[in-house]
Amino acid sequence: MYVNTDALLRSLPDIPGVMEKLQSGAYRLWGGLVRHAAGTEKAGQILGHLLFPGDSQQTQQRLQQLQSTLDKGLGTLQGGMGQLQQSMGVLQGLQSANLVMSGLNLAVTAAGFVIVCNKLNRISDQIQSQSEKIEQTYGLVKDVHDYNTLNDEAQFRSLILAAQQFCEQGDVEDLKGLIAPFHKEYQLTKLVLEKHASFAASSVVRLPQIKLLQDRLVNLGLTLSHVQMRTGAVKYSRKSMVQLESDIKGLNAQRIKSLTSDRGTASTIKHDQFTHITNFLQQGKQMLPALSYQADVIELEGRHPGLLQQASESKEILLLAA
Amino acid sequence: MEFVVPRARHLPDLLANASSADLNVLADLITDNGNGRVALDSKVKTTILARQAKGTLQSIPDVLDAEIRAFGSNSIATLFRSEGVSYLELATDAAKKLDGKLSESLDIFEIEKVVVCQAVEKYAGVKGIGDYATALGYVAQVVKGLISVAGTASGIAATGGAAGIAGAIGGRLLSMAVSPLAVAAAGATIFQAASPAFRITVPAVLQIAKIRQARYEYDFAIYKEKLRACM
Q: Confidence band (pLDDT; 50, 70, 90) for B167?
């Protein structure tokens, strides 16, 4: 059923009732959702969905403004302190996610998709340059292996270029043909990362390569989700996003399990290495709110087509009434 | 220390952060339970006893470190103190004295492990302990027994020979684990261990191994906590 979103979509700062109730703790933020707080008559019910601007800097500014507005409520609050603090925590999490991922709408807007494709190309360059260094250092790569590596990389790059072209041209049928290759690239990267996540030593000595591969996985997941959405497969687009969130969480959990159960490796880790490892793990953790938010937004786009375009062009955080 | 969970912390670093209960054992060993030793400077003894009384032995890790290492270079014929040997050398000598098998690749953590396992087998009569944590569980009793005979050569006689020594290191433990003949053999082994340097250094290494393990576990717990915070 098509619903005109204009009547439902409003700029958040222009809705004083919502801001006041967030301040008082009567409403609370839950990811990208505004809900009635626990202990209220409609506890848990969704009041509306937040939609963030397409530009990551504007998102950051608006999130800070929102946090600052809610912060003023802390001094005067009688009850609902816990609810307000939780809402502040959500805003903090979204700010971190926005910074880590350079945007909260990467998979769900056309502009975000261009950013993701460019990132994937940069990652490919880095992977290629590291691969060359490894070959030069060890001289282990034979001609056949060398050819296969280059061939795989060429296939990957051509896939990204084709996806960019088909998206720009709105060529839905050709985009559909790219879904399977994207899945293959995503699964291949994920399997490699899973294999290394089981070895504590990999998270130490191979961290630079693992960071690159995880970066590729994230951007591949975003790309896959976007391509799915552009082909009209909103359900699968959301599923890809939820899967990405679950995979990042699972990889982090496996790495932590391996690292905390291997005393031999633990004793070889130097302080600066440990800082790099925990920063990397924190980065994975911090991007989860952005992935969760985008999964929700994709679902909304399915119900209200065109909503994302409207939201991404806005400079303010919008609230879509439930 | 450059490692997050180091296995080879330097002795002063370990001692500066050890518990008072663990350091008291070392102080008793160095000062012969406050009676003093020929090889112990009276001013140093006074300092150690004063800090022990206040429960602040952690504040003099360098003094304790120097005294322990100095015992590594003593012999019955050499009552004059030298600067002492390195702790690694001291622990290696202790392991060899206990017939432990060593290789050049072992770090101090592994060498102390050899000392603990050999000492528990020889003095407590418990054989085939595969688990280091279990072996460390016997250290307090073994060290207590060794300290009681570590004062002077007459101290060994005063304990009543092999049977007395067995009592000193925990007769109940021994009688449960080994035969009376083995108890006598264990006593004889202690007599050998109680030669001038090793009667101090062997229990010292055992106690330091216990302190190191406690610190290692603490460091590992902090390491795990920081990683789990990234979940």
A: very low
